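Anyone up for a design puzzle?
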């Protein structure tokens, strides 16, 4: 599975870096290092909605440190199970 986190300027200002750190921690917690390829991406075209990430081909907008665990569960863990 590929996960990209937008590091375009708008998402960067809204905390992309923390999202990348958070994802790294979650991936490690769940022992998914071999199954997930985490990368940074340039603007994904959804700048007004907070940090945008892409899980395989699905765009997920409005990601924050608060909802990250939920997003991870819904879009990553579910897809892998
Ligand atoms: S800067 Fe992230 S979607 Fe545009």
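Challenge accepted. My sequence:
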């Amino acid at each position: 599975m590929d996960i990209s986190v937008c590091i375009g300027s708008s998402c960067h200002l809204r905390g992309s870096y923390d999202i990348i750190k958070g994802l790294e921690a979650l991936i490690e917690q769940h022992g998914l290092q071999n199954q997930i390829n985490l990368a940074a991406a340039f603007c994904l075209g959804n700048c007004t909605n907070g940090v945008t990430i892409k899980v395989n081909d699905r765009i997920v907008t409005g990601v924050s440190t608060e909802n990250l665990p939920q997003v991870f569960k819904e879009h990553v863990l579910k897809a892998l199970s």
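A detail worth pointing out: The CA atoms of residues 38 and 57 lie 13 Å apart.
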